[in-house]
Amino acid sequence: MHMLYNSDSFAVVHILANAQEVASAAEGDAPRPVLPRHGFEIVDKRSGKEVYLDGSWAELFQQQIESWQRDTPTQEEVEDTLERYASLAQMPLVVH
What we know:
This is DUF3567 domain-containing protein. The protein is an alpha+beta fold. Helix content is 30%, strand content 30%.
């Protein structure tokens, strides 16, 4: 896990896949590779909700991050974008 962004309003964490993991369907089966997946967790601290982006959503968000790296946006621009993604949030934030 890598914290990518943290402000009073939002936190963004990149959760990296571990391509070296293996899984077994049942005891005695030969290990099989686990598909590497990664995702992003966006926490809206104001509403107390979080959204996890994976698959095509994660790919779109990764493209947004790459754009930010090229163009260096203002904090307001970053927060506006995060707010659009956070509008997808349905899960209340639960402390583990």
